[in-house]
Specification:
By secondary structure, the chain is mainly beta. It is built from no helices and eight strands. The protein has strands spanning 19-26, 31-33, 38-46, 49-53, 59-63, 69-74, 79-82, 88-94. The protein has a four-stranded antiparallel sheet with strand order 1-8-3-6, with no helix packed on it. A four-stranded antiparallel sheet has the order 2-7-4-5, with no helix packed on it. The chain is elongated and about 50 Å long.
Length: 95
């Protein structure tokens, strides 16, 4: 069986990330501390605001539309929480 690996314009293999461990946040006050560094894909089922607290003490607020899928690199110990009681968020650690 021949397997196909996608190539870029220079015919180099394109890295593909696969979903790994999954986390789920539902409702205000719910949060997840991410135990390992890496690329995480966030899928917003509903809601608009996500609070991200990094281990170095800095933070960010992300405002998104329902249905948005976005990827971030997070260091180990990052906490992701929701600020909206109607928010539903899937977080997938990519490998």
């Amino acid at each position: 069986m021949n397997e196909y690996q996608p190539l870029d314009i220079n015919r180099n293999p394109i890295g593909v990330l696969q979903p790994g461990k999954q986390y789920y946040i539902e409702g205000s006050g719910d949060s997840v501390e991410l135990p390992e560094a890496g690329v995480y894909m966030l899928s917003f089922v509903s809601g608009t605001v996500v609070q991200i607290n990094y281990p170095d003490g800095t933070d960010s607020r992300v405002v998104v539309a329902t249905g948005t899928i976005i990827s971030f690199y997070f260091p180990a110990g990052t906490t992701v929480s929701v600020g909206d009681e109607d928010l539903q968020l899937n977080i997938n650690k990519m490998r």
